[in-house]
Amino acid sequence: MQGLGVLEEAGELTRRGQAFALATVVWRQGPSSGQQGSRAIITESGDLHGWIGGACAEPVVIREARQVIAEGVPRLLLLGAAEQFASRAASSAPVPDGMTFVPISCQSEGALEVYIEPVLPAPHLVIVGRSPMARTLADLARSLGWRTALLDGPEFSAADADEASMVVVSTQGHGDEEAVEQAAAARPAYLGLVGSAKRGAAVLGYLADRGVPQEQLDRVKVPAGLDLGRTSHREIAVSILAELVQLRASGALLPGGAPGAATRTAGTPGRPAAGDAVDAVDAVDLVCGMTVTAGASSYPLQHEGVTYYFCCAGCRRAFEDDPGAYLKKEAETRC
Description:
This protein has helices spanning about 5-15, 55-70, 130-145, 175-185, 195-210, 215, 235-250, 315-320, 325-335, and strands at about 20-30, 40-45, 50, 75-80, 100-105, 110-120, 125-130, 145-150, 165-170, 190-195, 220, 280-285, 290-295, 300-305, 305-310. It is of the alpha/beta class. It has 3 domains: about 1-120, no CATH class; about 125-255, 3-Layer(aba) Sandwich (Rossmann fold); about 280-335, no CATH class. The strands form 4 sheets. It has a 6-stranded mixed β-sheet. The radius of gyration is 25 Å and the shape is elongated.
């Protein structure tokens, strides 16, 4: 996949509401298989569609792209030797914010600058009920570009939401219990019930008696929205939208109701900082110093009971030929 094919795939992922990162080669120094203007899409799971470079560049771009998706912040990736990026990557000059320098020196002496930008799906809001407040909330959410569904209570089921959705039940006493039970089963990032605290307690008590797990009921916000005192139905819609915007901005609406992203601590350029890992564990190629994924695709080699990982077969062979030299170098670096 290349050229327009990458952009078409990006459009399809956007229509499906899937997050991904778009990586573009903005500068190259030969020899390098990546060309200026080359593009690739990297999904949340680490699948790559397109082309940005060879064996050394690809795993680094995938790892950094997954982090970009998780943080929602773009970055410029500098791949090569320090001297190829002059003062920007020199040890005496810190890499500016928004840039990440990763030293790679496997076989090729080329270098790349790759810009990675997150493409995150629009928020998904499901409103259950046809009250004037529900219609106002739907109009407001759509004006923000949110993907918004407005459903009658009997039309709604757990299949209409997922862990990334926000669900607001505004059935006004007409099937509140059934709607909340269906919504809770979907485990959305947010579930709010429009109604008084007294009404909410009655609904949740009824569902508890029906055997709905307490941990699901504990996730229901009732009354939904910020407390603005006595307000009209239009103002209630504003208060609910304001609460959702506030929670999203704080990172509290990650799928599954997880807390916001962990605080990152500074790391060494080219090494993962605390909080960098997405799913996989990282390892360092002892030959070239590159950070790789500790997995079957990273040329694993066992030596004296320890498994080492490499960015390419060439680095693996170099280590096999003289493991003592590289282990000694690693020990000296730690000291």
